[in-house]
Amino acid sequence: MAIWKLEPTEVSSPDWEASTYTKKVFVRAESEKKARDICAGAFLAATKVKFGNKIAINPWQSSFVSAVTVQDSGYQDEGKEEVVGPPEALHHVNA
After folding, report:
1. pLDDT tens for each residue of the chain, 95 residues long
2. Going by fewer Cβ within 10 Å, which terminus of the chain is more open, N or C?
3. Among 64, 56, 80, which residue's Cα sits nearest to residue 12?
4. pTM
């Protein structure tokens, strides 16, 4: 399975209110879409909806995050699809 590096490119967007984590993350996944879906679920944060305001979308599935596969990442490419690092990111994964 591939190791994907997802890295926020524009953290100034209000959409980041919908995420508990805003830094580079490594994910073991079959595809870019699956890697983004994993991050979207792992770092989901509830947001307040104010009448007349735009609803925040989960930024992990947007152009605010770059996604590339990496070789020699130091993370195991075998195992279930999940966030694998860095350790700081693992502390933000929703249980």
Report:
1. 999 999 999 888 888 888 999 999 999 999 999 999 999 999 988 777 777 777 777 899 888 999 999 998 899 999 999 999 999 999 888 75
2. C
3. 64
4. 0.88
